[in-house]
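quick one, four chains, predict together pls
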Amino acid sequence: MSESDPSPQAAIDRLFHALGDPTRRAMLDRLSQAPTSVSRLAEHLGITLTAVGQHLQILEESALVRTEKTGRVRTCAIDSAGFDRLERWVRDHRHAWEAGLDQLGQFLEEENE
Amino acid sequence: MSESDPSPQAAIDRLFHALGDPTRRAMLDRLSQAPTSVSRLAEHLGITLTAVGQHLQILEESALVRTEKTGRVRTCAIDSAGFDRLERWVRDHRHAWEAGLDQLGQFLEEENE
DNA sequence: AAAATAGTGAAGTATTCGCTTGACAATTAT
DNA sequence: ATAATTGTCAAGCGAATACTTCACTATTTT
């Protein structure tokens, strides 16, 4: 039951919750450059290995990061699945803000006739 | 000093923090359909007016929502500025996940030569 | 074999977060 | 004028969050 999530809404919730933390976004920024180990991430961010591990779990559950442990080092990289989902969410809401800056003004005029 | 923010990073932080809450995203979903008053939002979400007001402040500060009070009713609508910024962030990270699913595998092979 | 490196797990802590209640102000309806 | 509607402000509360430390395992290096 790892692949087919019964609730797409839950996936969106996890996704945005993961993106909501600045440290996790910094990790994504870093991983956007190249795959990196847990130690390097910790060093770069100035936090403990444990903290990085906790963030990684959240990032993996939201499919923003994939990791693989070979030997004693776990390597982390961007996972496209989460970003695809994010892009889809943006696309699904685009119509609403492409309506223009005066959507509010228009609405108020209509109500006021 | 409402338009030129000295720190674009702070704007990104506010943006993703705002998007991180499911109630606020539900508000955005609703406002994507049409501008709405605070009372209607509260009714729809099953929370108090006060709670909606608190969320609105965060959504306005991140430029995801604009509001205008005429008479005693405050009308809320989508603000394009925040969504533009979100889209920009996605675009700036796109290269990293368009590299493909095997970015991690490739990296591990290279290291292992 | 011993020491160093890389990561994991459990438990605790300080802060932030989302929400409520209760009191209040301002506009609109009767 | 009174009453009802719509929203705002201040304070407080319980839960969640992002960390840490300490103890431990597993792999590499010397």
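DSSP finds six helices and three strands in chain B.
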